Amino acid sequence: MAIAAWKRIEKRPGYQRLKTSFKRLIGKELRLPVELRVPTLKEGGWVFTPQGLDQDSIVYSLGVGEDIEFDLAVIDRYDVTLHAFDPTPSSINMLAAADTPGRFFFHPWAVSATDGVVRFFPRKKKDGGKSAVMFTLIGDDVNHEGAIEVPAYSLASISRRLGHVRIDLLKMDIEGAEYAVLEGLLIAPIKPAQLLIEFHHRFPGVGLKKTADIVARLRAAGYRIFAVSETGREVSFLRTVLRTSAR
Protein backbone atom coordinates (compact mmCIF):
# COMPACT_ATOMS: atom_id res chain seq x y z
CA MET A 1 0.00 0.00 0.00
CA ALA A 2 2.71 2.46 1.05
CA ILE A 3 4.82 1.67 -2.04
CA ALA A 4 1.84 2.13 -4.35
CA ALA A 5 0.96 5.46 -2.69
CA TRP A 6 4.55 6.69 -3.06
CA LYS A 7 4.58 5.75 -6.75
CA ARG A 8 1.43 7.83 -7.26
CA ILE A 9 3.09 10.78 -5.54
CA GLU A 10 6.20 10.41 -7.71
CA LYS A 11 4.09 10.75 -10.87
CA ARG A 12 2.46 14.02 -9.81
CA PRO A 13 3.63 17.11 -11.77
CA GLY A 14 4.32 19.05 -8.57
CA TYR A 15 6.65 16.35 -7.28
CA GLN A 16 8.38 16.10 -10.65
CA ARG A 17 8.95 19.86 -10.76
CA LEU A 18 10.38 19.85 -7.24
CA LYS A 19 12.66 16.93 -8.05
CA THR A 20 13.85 18.61 -11.27
CA SER A 21 14.52 21.90 -9.43
CA PHE A 22 16.69 20.05 -6.92
CA LYS A 23 18.59 18.28 -9.71
CA ARG A 24 19.25 21.64 -11.40
CA LEU A 25 20.46 23.05 -8.11
CA ILE A 26 23.07 20.29 -7.75
CA GLY A 27 24.03 20.34 -11.43
CA LYS A 28 22.37 17.09 -12.50
CA GLU A 29 19.78 18.61 -14.82
CA LEU A 30 19.87 21.42 -17.38
CA ARG A 31 18.13 24.76 -17.05
CA LEU A 32 16.41 25.21 -20.40
CA PRO A 33 14.34 28.42 -20.50
CA VAL A 34 11.15 28.73 -22.51
CA GLU A 35 11.88 31.27 -25.26
CA LEU A 36 8.59 31.42 -27.16
CA ARG A 37 5.00 31.91 -26.04
CA VAL A 38 2.71 30.06 -28.42
CA PRO A 39 -0.61 28.21 -28.05
CA THR A 40 0.06 24.68 -26.78
CA LEU A 41 -1.74 21.39 -26.29
CA LYS A 42 -0.66 18.24 -24.47
CA GLU A 43 -1.41 14.75 -25.77
CA GLY A 44 0.17 11.48 -24.69
CA GLY A 45 2.64 13.32 -22.49
CA TRP A 46 3.90 15.57 -25.31
CA VAL A 47 3.43 19.34 -25.55
CA PHE A 48 3.04 20.73 -29.08
CA THR A 49 1.63 23.82 -30.73
CA PRO A 50 -1.31 23.53 -33.15
CA GLN A 51 0.20 26.31 -35.26
CA GLY A 52 0.34 25.21 -38.89
CA LEU A 53 -1.22 21.79 -38.34
CA ASP A 54 -4.01 20.80 -40.72
CA GLN A 55 -5.01 18.04 -43.12
CA ASP A 56 -2.04 18.83 -45.36
CA SER A 57 0.49 18.42 -42.56
CA ILE A 58 3.12 15.67 -42.37
CA VAL A 59 4.06 14.34 -38.93
CA TYR A 60 6.92 11.93 -38.15
CA SER A 61 6.83 9.97 -34.89
CA LEU A 62 10.19 8.37 -34.07
CA GLY A 63 10.07 5.69 -31.40
CA VAL A 64 6.48 4.72 -30.64
CA GLY A 65 7.18 1.93 -28.15
CA GLU A 66 3.82 0.52 -27.09
CA ASP A 67 2.03 3.87 -26.84
CA ILE A 68 0.49 5.67 -29.82
CA GLU A 69 -1.80 7.96 -27.79
CA PHE A 70 -0.06 11.09 -29.08
CA ASP A 71 -0.08 9.85 -32.67
CA LEU A 72 -3.78 9.00 -32.71
CA ALA A 73 -4.74 12.24 -30.95
CA VAL A 74 -2.92 14.44 -33.48
CA ILE A 75 -4.53 12.57 -36.37
CA ASP A 76 -7.95 12.86 -34.76
CA ARG A 77 -7.61 16.59 -34.01
CA TYR A 78 -6.05 17.81 -37.25
CA ASP A 79 -6.46 15.01 -39.80
CA VAL A 80 -2.68 15.04 -40.40
CA THR A 81 -0.78 12.27 -42.17
CA LEU A 82 1.46 10.59 -39.61
CA HIS A 83 4.38 8.26 -40.25
CA ALA A 84 5.58 6.24 -37.25
CA PHE A 85 9.00 4.58 -37.05
CA ASP A 86 10.12 1.87 -34.64
CA PRO A 87 12.10 -1.30 -35.40
CA THR A 88 11.67 -3.00 -32.01
CA PRO A 89 9.79 -6.32 -31.96
CA SER A 90 7.24 -5.22 -29.33
CA SER A 91 6.23 -2.17 -31.40
CA ILE A 92 5.97 -4.19 -34.60
CA ASN A 93 3.79 -6.80 -32.90
CA MET A 94 1.62 -4.21 -31.17
CA LEU A 95 0.95 -2.25 -34.33
CA ALA A 96 0.30 -5.38 -36.39
CA ALA A 97 -2.67 -6.04 -34.11
CA ALA A 98 -3.77 -2.41 -33.70
CA ASP A 99 -6.72 -0.79 -35.45
CA THR A 100 -5.15 2.41 -36.74
CA PRO A 101 -6.70 5.13 -38.94
CA GLY A 102 -5.98 5.42 -42.64
CA ARG A 103 -3.68 8.39 -42.12
CA PHE A 104 -1.37 6.39 -39.81
CA PHE A 105 1.55 4.70 -41.58
CA PHE A 106 4.05 2.49 -39.76
CA HIS A 107 7.62 1.73 -40.84
CA PRO A 108 9.72 -0.86 -38.92
CA TRP A 109 12.92 1.15 -39.42
CA ALA A 110 15.38 2.79 -37.08
CA VAL A 111 16.18 6.43 -37.77
CA SER A 112 19.88 7.20 -37.62
CA ALA A 113 22.49 9.63 -38.87
CA THR A 114 23.28 7.43 -41.88
CA ASP A 115 21.74 4.54 -43.81
CA GLY A 116 22.73 1.00 -42.92
CA VAL A 117 22.17 -1.63 -40.26
CA VAL A 118 22.41 -0.82 -36.55
CA ARG A 119 22.48 -2.92 -33.37
CA PHE A 120 19.98 -2.21 -30.62
CA PHE A 121 20.49 -3.44 -27.07
CA PRO A 122 17.73 -4.18 -24.54
CA ARG A 123 17.63 -1.58 -21.76
CA LYS A 124 18.39 -2.83 -18.28
CA LYS A 125 15.45 -2.79 -15.90
CA LYS A 126 15.78 -1.69 -12.29
CA ASP A 127 15.93 -5.33 -11.19
CA GLY A 128 18.86 -5.97 -13.53
CA GLY A 129 16.85 -7.92 -16.09
CA LYS A 130 16.45 -6.95 -19.74
CA SER A 131 13.54 -4.97 -21.10
CA ALA A 132 11.41 -6.62 -23.76
CA VAL A 133 10.15 -3.22 -24.91
CA MET A 134 12.89 -0.58 -24.65
CA PHE A 135 16.03 -0.82 -26.78
CA THR A 136 18.90 1.61 -27.21
CA LEU A 137 21.92 2.18 -29.45
CA ILE A 138 24.05 3.07 -26.44
CA GLY A 139 26.15 0.11 -25.36
CA ASP A 140 26.83 1.17 -21.76
CA ASP A 141 24.70 -0.20 -18.93
CA VAL A 142 22.61 -2.39 -21.21
CA ASN A 143 21.91 -6.08 -21.46
CA HIS A 144 24.02 -7.27 -24.39
CA GLU A 145 22.19 -10.57 -24.54
CA GLY A 146 19.27 -10.20 -26.91
CA ALA A 147 20.75 -7.46 -29.14
CA ILE A 148 18.97 -7.06 -32.46
CA GLU A 149 20.10 -5.77 -35.86
CA VAL A 150 17.66 -3.53 -37.68
CA PRO A 151 17.54 -1.46 -40.90
CA ALA A 152 18.29 2.22 -40.37
CA TYR A 153 17.86 5.30 -42.54
CA SER A 154 18.62 8.98 -42.13
CA LEU A 155 15.80 11.51 -42.08
CA ALA A 156 16.95 12.79 -45.47
CA SER A 157 16.74 9.29 -46.95
CA ILE A 158 13.35 8.66 -45.38
CA SER A 159 11.84 11.88 -46.68
CA ARG A 160 13.11 11.02 -50.17
CA ARG A 161 11.73 7.47 -49.95
CA LEU A 162 8.33 8.75 -48.86
CA GLY A 163 8.28 11.66 -51.30
CA HIS A 164 8.03 14.39 -48.67
CA VAL A 165 9.32 17.90 -49.25
CA ARG A 166 8.56 19.04 -45.69
CA ILE A 167 7.97 17.74 -42.16
CA ASP A 168 5.59 19.84 -40.08
CA LEU A 169 6.16 18.10 -36.76
CA LEU A 170 8.73 15.53 -35.66
CA LYS A 171 8.41 13.72 -32.32
CA MET A 172 11.45 11.81 -31.11
CA ASP A 173 11.78 9.34 -28.22
CA ILE A 174 14.53 7.01 -29.35
CA GLU A 175 16.45 6.08 -26.20
CA GLY A 176 19.67 8.02 -26.69
CA ALA A 177 19.86 7.85 -30.49
CA GLU A 178 18.44 11.39 -30.76
CA TYR A 179 21.88 13.01 -30.77
CA ALA A 180 23.05 11.27 -33.95
CA VAL A 181 19.67 11.85 -35.62
CA LEU A 182 19.77 15.55 -34.79
CA GLU A 183 23.31 15.80 -36.17
CA GLY A 184 21.92 14.51 -39.45
CA LEU A 185 18.87 16.74 -39.29
CA LEU A 186 20.98 19.85 -38.91
CA ILE A 187 22.70 19.24 -42.24
CA ALA A 188 19.63 17.88 -44.06
CA PRO A 189 17.77 20.04 -46.60
CA ILE A 190 14.43 19.58 -44.79
CA LYS A 191 14.07 21.07 -41.31
CA PRO A 192 10.89 20.15 -39.39
CA ALA A 193 8.82 23.11 -38.22
CA GLN A 194 8.33 21.55 -34.77
CA LEU A 195 10.59 19.22 -32.82
CA LEU A 196 9.41 17.33 -29.73
CA ILE A 197 12.41 15.55 -28.23
CA GLU A 198 13.04 13.44 -25.16
CA PHE A 199 16.72 13.85 -24.28
CA HIS A 200 18.53 10.99 -22.54
CA HIS A 201 21.48 12.74 -20.90
CA ARG A 202 20.74 10.66 -17.78
CA PHE A 203 22.08 7.59 -19.60
CA PRO A 204 25.62 6.45 -18.65
CA GLY A 205 28.13 7.79 -21.12
CA VAL A 206 25.90 10.62 -22.41
CA GLY A 207 25.82 13.45 -19.88
CA LEU A 208 24.41 16.97 -19.74
CA LYS A 209 27.01 18.51 -22.04
CA LYS A 210 25.84 16.45 -25.00
CA THR A 211 22.31 17.77 -24.63
CA ALA A 212 23.49 21.33 -24.00
CA ASP A 213 25.66 21.22 -27.13
CA ILE A 214 22.91 19.91 -29.43
CA VAL A 215 20.38 22.40 -28.03
CA ALA A 216 22.84 25.21 -28.81
CA ARG A 217 23.19 23.94 -32.37
CA LEU A 218 19.41 23.71 -32.77
CA ARG A 219 19.12 27.32 -31.61
CA ALA A 220 21.75 28.33 -34.16
CA ALA A 221 19.57 26.68 -36.83
CA GLY A 222 16.59 28.83 -35.81
CA TYR A 223 14.82 26.61 -33.28
CA ARG A 224 13.43 28.10 -30.07
CA ILE A 225 12.08 26.29 -27.00
CA PHE A 226 8.38 26.72 -26.29
CA ALA A 227 7.86 24.00 -23.66
CA VAL A 228 9.89 21.94 -21.19
CA SER A 229 8.40 19.04 -19.24
CA GLU A 230 8.33 18.72 -15.45
CA THR A 231 11.30 16.33 -15.63
CA GLY A 232 13.30 18.68 -17.88
CA ARG A 233 13.88 15.90 -20.41
CA GLU A 234 11.08 16.44 -22.94
CA VAL A 235 11.66 19.67 -24.84
CA SER A 236 9.50 21.23 -27.56
CA PHE A 237 11.05 23.46 -30.25
CA LEU A 238 9.57 25.66 -32.98
CA ARG A 239 11.64 26.82 -35.93
CA THR A 240 11.28 30.57 -36.24
CA VAL A 241 13.13 31.14 -39.53
CA LEU A 242 11.38 30.99 -42.86
CA ARG A 243 11.52 27.62 -44.59
CA THR A 244 12.54 27.55 -48.24
CA SER A 245 10.98 24.16 -49.02
CA ALA A 246 7.60 24.22 -50.70
CA ARG A 247 4.41 23.45 -48.83
Descriptive overview:
The chain has helices at residues 2-10, 13-25, 69-78, 89-97, 155-162, 178-187, 208-220; strands at 41-43, 46-48, 58-62, 81-85, 104-107, 110-111, 116-124, 130-136, 148-153, 169-172, 194-198, 223-228, 234-239. The chain is an alpha/beta fold and 247 residues long. It has a single domain, classed as Rossmann fold, CATH 3.40.50. The strands form three sheets. A seven-stranded mixed β-sheet has the order 5-4-3-10-11-13-12, with helices on both faces. A four-stranded mixed β-sheet has the order 6-9-7-8.
Task: Summarize this structure as a short list of keywords or feature phrases.
alpha/beta, 4-stranded mixed sheet, 247 residues, Rossmann fold, 7 helices, globular
Largest sheet: 7 strands, mixed
- CATH structural fold name: Rossmann fold
Low-confidence stretches: 243-247
Output mean pLDDT. 85
Lateral strand order in the biggest sheet: 5-4-3-10-11-13-12
Radius of gyration: 18 Å
CATH superfamily caption:
Vaccinia Virus protein VP39
N-end to C-end Cα span: 54 Å
- Specify the helix fraction band: 25-40%
- Please report the total strand number as a whole number: 13
Number of helices: 7
Proportion of strand residues: 25-35%
CATH architecture: 3-Layer(aba) Sandwich
Q: Report the order of strands and helices.
A: HHEEEHEHEEEEEHEHEHEE
**Strand pairing plus helix content: what structural class?**
alpha/beta
What is the CATH first-level class name? Alpha Beta
- Globally, the shape reads globular
Could you say how many structural domains there are in total? 1
